[in-house]
Recover the amino acids of this structure.
């Protein structure tokens, strides 16, 4: 297990290196100077040149890259251009709402997808299965921000059950907090539940038709034990990957959803930074999400090894 | 003294619902299993052996997959008419089943220990500790070295023979009265096959349980069973004590099966006997005797009318030629 | 003996015919969904091409006096906050979405296939390209696109470029794995032994075999490009603010959600229908190309 773990952790290093290269070149290889795009079209050439000098943009690219990386490794993500605030502390202060929405959306995702997916797998071809196919097809075709808009129109504007925008932190009361993140979480959760439902259905269907299920039945294990222990534990190896993808998808989907519902999270921060042309912040967030993505994939692989003992052998 | 009958299968039929319509995989099968005996069920693949055995445990989903008719009496109680909850209670405690390939039959992500404890915890409501103690005992009983260590291992960490032993131990956990073994040695090497069969024989004697041994291997039947049932296309075509069956097979199909076993002591016979044709698909079942299309002795009557099982000494056979000519 | 084996053959043939009929029927049943998808795709294509004929107004013409009018005979889908005709803007928005979807899926398809095919020819190239894809895939595509758009500026060409860059890694990966499967086939071995050149094998024998998977994947890229373009424009990082795009109309609708539901519902229906159409079309194509996966 330890060897598997080490090997897997080491394998993330080249990926992280590549991610940093990609993010760096995104900023530095695109046409136009970042200083120019930050200052806007009204700035004079002298102003742009001065800022370029300050930002070290005149150094050769490899030097810039090395400086950037060594700063990052020292925890220095730079200073935001507009706020004059350290980028890292800006991101940290916007983290809470994003985590809240993501966790809540993930719960909704699983609450919809797991029971329906399992039901569809157990009764393949029946009405429940057809319903799941239709729901997941619509879920896949309905972008999260569009669903969010429609939910807002119906539940906030017309019915008035939920606030249409704004965020109440957990410290101001649990219920108010839940109410404020309900619609964005449902929008994100439902969108990802479509894929999750499909995967649950196929994974559970495969597992339920294995010989070990027949044997468990012949041992006298009741239906709930068969589904929840014998089949689900086998299917969960496949489901974990999808959960991991969903978490990353929700984190990046937060950009649109948080902007829509005016939730002061990391997603809103990145979109605000677009209009401020604050490329230091954008760069840092993209890098951060990519690192989280790599970390989640690593975690999923480690959990694989814990759930399915056969994996360590390979 | 008449031996005690533990399982009495009377006129069992199993019909599957498929997209192509219903078809009967087992039609009107009857046989008995006595306490302490090993009954062989023989036939080519597709003859309904496995479906029969899984129907006894009602393993097919009755709402979606299949429906059963007839009676399966376990010590006088009809398993086909009791509620499914009650059936679940009997599975693994009164009747157990083992399958062909232990690697796919054991759950890959659960430890041997968990899978061994499971039936005891469900049926005997044992605590984890008690079940653990029993489980180690069981592993010892089926001849597994270092049973304490095995408890924490996963199926893929054991050898094929060991896995087969573990599966047998799980099936025996609650000391069932009847064990159904569905091709228990087919997937194993020849040497391990012999070990597993020896184990089954000794357990059968020690625990005095009835065993239904399903196999396509006549040699296994000859070595281990006291009686055997020959099945063809979902029907019993012959039932006889094993010595009778081999010495004097009555049904042309049984004769064909026995003739197609190679004999070491008969080197003169160079060409193996082959039963012509193959088992037809279930939707193309002939109207008369089901074996008629492949039978060398088939007459018009055979092709027209279905023969019934009839007594012929200690044997029972389903063939028109028995009455008319006293055997073929 | 001969008569029995003939009968067996006959039975086998009968069985196979029944099986084939059953599969065809089932595919027809599934195809009903694919037909709906194809119809939606065709309708969207017609709208995109014939937008000037269908639109009732100039999509850019604004009349501040007529702002935020509800749907009426004059303005089928109402007007937006600038008094522009929403129906005409949705119709021209269809054109935008179809152009983006087409350009992204074709460019990602072509470049991805090239990369995947050549990756399958050499171990070193394969390693380099696939690690690069890993790195690109680690960055969630919408963030990647947002980031690129910030640097490039709002413009339809930049939207296409950004979305193509984020779609290529996946496409290359699919092309590569399909190409590797074909490469394993015995007939490719046989070709090599007859002295066929690597280029010939690659283009005459491997490429035609992976093209169906690539086309299927392209329809899914098309669908997701529609979503991504709408999302980018919605955020103000897609098309320029005045350009007709479903995302831009939705963004306007968000600002006036209490006053003008029509700014959300109509472009919303168009977005959803077109994405659904391309997804169904893709599913149908997959079944068509590979009936074994039914």
């Amino acid at each position: 297990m330890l060897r598997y773990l080490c090997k897997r952790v080491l394998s993330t290093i080249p990926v992280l290196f590549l991610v940093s290269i990609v993010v760096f070149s995104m900023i530095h290889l695109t046409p136009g100077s970042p200083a120019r795009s930050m200052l806007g079209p009204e700035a004079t050439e002298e102003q742009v040149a001065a800022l370029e000098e300050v930002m070290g943009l005149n150094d050769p690219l490899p030097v810039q890259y090395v400086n950037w990386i060594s700063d990052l490794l020292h925890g220095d993500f730079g200073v935001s251009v507009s706020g004059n605030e350290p980028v890292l502390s800006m991101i940290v202060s916007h983290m809470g709402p994003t985590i809240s929405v993501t966790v809540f959306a993930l719960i909704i995702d699983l609450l919809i997808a797991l029971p329906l997916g399992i039901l569809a797998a157990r009764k393949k071809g029946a009405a429940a299965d057809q319903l799941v196919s239709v729901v997941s097809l619509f879920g896949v075709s309905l972008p999260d921000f569009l669903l969010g808009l429609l939910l807002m129109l119906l539940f906030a504007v017309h019915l008035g059950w939920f606030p249409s925008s704004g965020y109440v932190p957990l410290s101001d009361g649990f219920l108010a907090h839940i109410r404020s993140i309900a619609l964005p979480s449902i929008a994100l959760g439902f969108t990802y539940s479509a894929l999750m439902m499909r995967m649950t259905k196929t994974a559970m269907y495969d597992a339920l038709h294995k010989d070990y299920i027949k044997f468990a039945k012949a041992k006298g294990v009741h239906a709930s034990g068969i589904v929840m222990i014998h089949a689900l534990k086998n299917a969960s190896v496949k489901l974990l990957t999808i959960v991991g993808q969903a978490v990353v998808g929700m984190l990046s989907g937060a950009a649109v959803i948080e902007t829509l519902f005016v939730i002061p999270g990391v997603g809103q921060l990145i979109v605000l930074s677009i209009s401020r042309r604050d490329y230091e912040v954008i760069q840092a967030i993209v890098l951060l999400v990519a690192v989280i993505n790599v970390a989640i994939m690593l975690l999923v692989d480690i959990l694989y090894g814990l759930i399915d003992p056969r994996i360590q052998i390979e | 003294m008449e031996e005690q009958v533990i399982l009495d299968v009377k006129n069992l039929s199993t019909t599957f619902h498929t997209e192509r319509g219903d078809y009967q995989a087992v039609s009107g099968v009857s046989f008995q299993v006595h306490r302490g005996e090993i009954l062989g069920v023989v036939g080519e693949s597709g003859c309904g052996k496995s479906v029969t055995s899984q129907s006894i445990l009602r393993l097919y989903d009755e709402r979606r997959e299949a429906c059963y008719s007839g009676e399966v009496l376990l010590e006088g109680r009809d398993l086909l008419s009791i509620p499914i909850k009650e059936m679940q209670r009997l599975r693994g405690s009164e009747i157990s089943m083992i399958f062909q390939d232990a690697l796919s039959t054991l759950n890959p992500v659960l430890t041997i220990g968990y899978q061994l404890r499971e039936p005891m915890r469900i049926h005997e409501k044992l605590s984890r500790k008690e079940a653990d103690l029993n489980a180690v005992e069981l592993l010892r009983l089926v001849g597994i070295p270092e049973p304490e260590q095995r408890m924490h291992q996963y199926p893929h960490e054991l050898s094929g023979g060991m896995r087969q032993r573990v599966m047998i131990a799980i099936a025996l956990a609650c000391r069932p009265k009847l064990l159904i073994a569905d091709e228990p040695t087919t997937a194993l090497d020849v040497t391990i096959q012999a070990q597993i069969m020896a184990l089954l024989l000794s357990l059968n004697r020690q625990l005095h349980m009835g065993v239904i041994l399903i196999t396509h291997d006549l040699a296994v039947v000859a070595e281990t069973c006291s009686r055997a049932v020959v099945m063809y296309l979902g029907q019993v075509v012959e039932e006889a004590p094993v010595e009778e069956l081999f010495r004097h097979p009555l049904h042309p199909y049984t004769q064909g099966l026995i003739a197609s076993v190679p004999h070491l002591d008969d080197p003169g016979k160079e060409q193996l006997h082959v039963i012509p044709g193959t088992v037809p698909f279930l939707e193309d079942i002939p109207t008369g005797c089901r074996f008629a299309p492949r039978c060398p002795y088939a007459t018009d009557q055979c092709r027209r009318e279905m023969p019934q099982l009839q007594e012929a000494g200690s044997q029972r056979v389903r063939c028109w030629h028995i009455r008319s000519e006293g055997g073929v | 003996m001969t008569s029995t084996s003939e009968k067996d053959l006959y039975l086998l043939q009968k069985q196979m015919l029944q099986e084939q009929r059953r599969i065809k029927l089932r595919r027809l049943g599934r195809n009903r969904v694919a037909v709906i998808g194809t119809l939606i795709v065709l309708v969207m294509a017609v709208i995109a091409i014939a937008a000037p004929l269908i639109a009732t107004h100039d999509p850019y013409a604004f009349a501040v006096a007529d702002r935020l009018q509800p749907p009426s005979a004059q303005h089928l889908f109402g007007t937006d906050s600038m008094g522009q005709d929403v129906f005409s803007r949705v119709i021209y928005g269809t054109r935008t979405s179809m152009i983006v979807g087409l350009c992204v899926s074709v460019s990602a398809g072509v470049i991805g296939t090239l990369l995947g095919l050549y990756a399958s020819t050499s171990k070193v190239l394969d390693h380099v390209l696939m690690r690069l894809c890993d790195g690109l895939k680690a960055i969630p595509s919408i963030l990647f696109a947002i980031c690129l758009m910030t640097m490039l500026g709002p413009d339809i060409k930049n939207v296409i470029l950004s979305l193509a860059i984020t779609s290529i890694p996946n496409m290359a990966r699919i092309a590569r794995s399909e190409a590797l499967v074909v490469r394993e086939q015995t007939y490719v071995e046989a070709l090599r032994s007859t002295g066929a050149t690597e280029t010939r094998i690659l283009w005459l024998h491997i490429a035609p075999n992976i093209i169906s998977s690539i086309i299927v994947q392209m329809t899914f890229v098309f669908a997701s490009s529609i979503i991504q373009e709408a999302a980018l424009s919605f955020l103000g990082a897609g098309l320029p603010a005045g350009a007709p795009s479903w995302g831009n109309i939705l963004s306007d609708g968000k600002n006036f959600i209490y006053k003008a539901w029509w700014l959300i519902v109509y472009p919303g229906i168009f977005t959803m229908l077109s994405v659904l159409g391309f997804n169904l079309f893709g599913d149908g194509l997959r079944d068509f190309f590979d009936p074994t996966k039914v």
Remarks:
- Chain A touches chain C through 54 residues (CB under 8 Å).
- Residues 93-281 of chain A form a domain with the MetI-like fold fold (CATH 1.10.3720.10).
- The mean pLDDT of chain A is 86.
